[in-house]
Amino acid sequence: MLLATSLLCVGSWPGRALAQPVPIVPMEDWVGADEVVVTDAAIELHLRVGHERPVIFPEPVGLLNRPPLPDTGVTIDGDVVLFASGGALQGETVVFVGDTTARRYRFEVSASAYGSRVPLRLRLP
Question: Rounded to whole angstroms, how far apart are CA atoms 20 and 30?
């Protein structure tokens, strides 16, 4: 009983700082990727907090004018965009523009402890 009481007290110390920067786990090698066919609808992208998640586009892209996502790094390398979420997000819109076709790729981005780490590959219809 003493052990259970001690564990309950550890999480409830007054003045304990819970909001600390989340270390990001680098992307690993993946055998496959989730695939999404691009339409005019927004692409749902659910990130896992503290992990990198790549999105592979069918062409090189650039970021349309938009402020950065809160607590989330976005790295663009040609046709690959790497997201690294350091905190929870919900319903953030971000738009990329294709360098070759000028096609717009709109994402609704969220992040939580239950998000995905699996790469996302976009495919044109």
Answer: 29
Q: Can you tell me the distance from the alpha carbon of 88 to that of 97, in angstroms, rounded to the nearest whole number?
A: 25
Six-digit token string for 105: 């790729």
Answer for the pair 5, 80: CB distance below 8 angstroms, yes or no.
no
**Domains of the chain, first to last:** 33-123 (2.60.40)
| CA–CA distances in Å: residue 13 to residues 4, 7, 9, 21 | 15, 11, 6, 20
Residue 113 token pair: 């402890």
Six-digit token string for 71 = 């607590």
The span from the CA of 78 to the CA of 70, in Å, is 23
Q: What is the pLDDT of residues 41-93, one digit of tens each?
A: 999 999 999 999 999 999 999 999 776 788 899 999 999 999 999 999 998 99
pTM value is 0.78
pLDDT digits (tens, 9 = 90+) for 12-26: 333 333 344 577 777
